[in-house]
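Allow me, if you will, to draw on your knowledge of protein folds for a short while. A protein sequence and the structure tokens that stand for its backbone fold form the material at issue. I would ask you to consider whether the tokens describe a fold that such a sequence might reasonably adopt. Thank you for your consideration; the sequence and its tokens are set out here:
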Amino acid sequence: MREKLAPVWLLAKRELLDQFRDWRILFPLAILTLLFPPLMYSVAGSAVDFANKYGGEMILDRLVPFSILIIGFFPVTVSLVVALESFVGEKERGTIEPLLGTPFLDWQLYLGKLLVGIFFPLVASYLSIALYLFMVSKQDLSLPSANLMAELLMLTAAHALLMVSGAIAISTQSTSVRAANLLASFIVMPVAILIQGESVLIFWGNDYLLWLALSAVLILAALLIRVGIAHFQREYLLGREIDSFNLKWMGRTFRDAFVGETHSLIQWYQIQVGATFRKLKMPLLLIIILTVFGGVAAFKLTSATIPSEVGEYSSDEIDERLGDLKLAAGLPDESMEITFGFIFSHNIQAVLIMLLLGLISFGILGGLAYIVNIGVLGGLMAALQAYGLPAGMMFLTGILPHGIFEIPALMLAGTGVLYFGAVMVTPNPTKTVGEIFIYALADWFKIGIGIILPFLFIAALIEVYITPILLSRVIQ
């Protein structure tokens, strides 16, 4: 293994020496590293004065961790240019041919560039954080605990790994530095939104969920690295000279993947939908396991927490919550009109959101959205039982009639996004990344239009016209 990694370290050393000679990278990075901590220090001082004047001890306790998270983010965005031009920049400078002519393997070239891309942003981020902590220690602010400090430093490293791995993947697929820089917004903006969510967890003081967020970021970064290595081909870097956005080609490729050689609806179901469904055996098995585990875990967790909260409510509050639970179970309120169009469009929207989340996370967030839906169902059953409602009968009459179609539809939607992620991280030298993306998306829509859509249509009909009648006989 050491012999295989030796070329990686050799390439990384060569890249580091080149970067240290380039003042256009070092100068702005040094300026940001040295000037941003004093800026946050002054902001912290103003926040301290405001909190001392109007009260807000909890905000003060979480102000330093929040600032550390922000300080660690900005140097990464500036030094991201190193990763963005790692391959395509050498191509424009005419130095890519000697590099690709070396006996290094593709994954060794990729990892060497990745190490250099991570080095600069991580060193700059940690130096900024160290300078800020030194300045804060002179102020009347409490430093984070050791556990929270470890989380923040690891989150900073995870963000750098996520952004750099995405930037290098873009660099391998771009034909110019300008195109790579334009695509950088698709890296910076999602991570900025992610940091906003992590900031909420910091102010809530929920360190457990922060560890889960760290794990999710590391998983996404690992998948991005896997995608980059899987689709990195040195011949591809030399062969393409210009990026093109050919809508006709994209539409034709999608049509060929979606329809194939079929000429009738029955033939399409037999050949295209049937072939795609056979590809989903392993992810479908995983979804079934997650369904059972998620539903049981949510039921047990809710059953353990709800009884302790019931005693805190007055009788009026309990009646109000019972009414909310009846609505959640499917029994419409007199003031609310639940129509077929509302239910059907709501279910379609949920499935499309699951698909969108899966597309931007290689199936991870799409699968998570499915687990949340199943968890809500398990928690609802436990809550109904805790509040004295006949949970078993409500499940049989209020969920199962339309759930026979709706739950399998959601399972197939989750299975499709997991399959999409698996296809994207699997090497396929016969197709480009764009072709793999289109073919995987076409497979999802075969299942979506051929099975999921009819199932949701039938489920909405049952939920609107049959479920309320059955429920009304159980709950008066």
